[in-house]
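User: Second chain of the day. Same drill as before.
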Amino acid sequence: MNPILQFQEFFQACVGNWATERTYHYLTHQEVERSHTEFVIQPVTLDRKNQVLSDNQYPSPPDLDNLPGYHLEFATISEKGDHVNQSLNMLFVPQQQEGMILLGDYLRDRAYEESRPIVSKFRFYPENRELLMTTTYTRVISVDSITLVNPQLRIRKILNYRRPQANEPMQEVLLVGFGVEQKQTP
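Assistant: Same format as last time:
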């Protein structure tokens, strides 16, 4: 099957309401924290796609209508009682294909780690339906993986590395997160 079609099917399967149980391991101070998140994932509208492009000063691709993206709203509560609510728009722009693997840019109007528009990189592996997103922030590099096990279950992994000096490898892990995400029926 065509990797672009599999990529679009991945996004279609992710639309809906999801509940997530996560565990975060903060390696800098040896702490483990659990949280619960409720997600609402909707396809991103053409107007919002254009806004994400504009916010990031990114040229408009010719096939904008067909590019996958989401409008994401979530509410998280940690076991300590901390609440985080956020909404954002994202767009995925494939740039190239290596065998069956798609590579491209991942644009958001608001990033998680730093509240600003940001362009990141993604890799999509159709054989195991894994979307790997790498974002370079000011202090960290975040590597976020979503594996669609089936249309009702996603596995999430997050690794935050201390941002290395230019041309140095990522080595110092600051945070490791694991999550089980289950689609909710309305």
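The chain has a mean pLDDT of 94.

User: Great, on to the next one.
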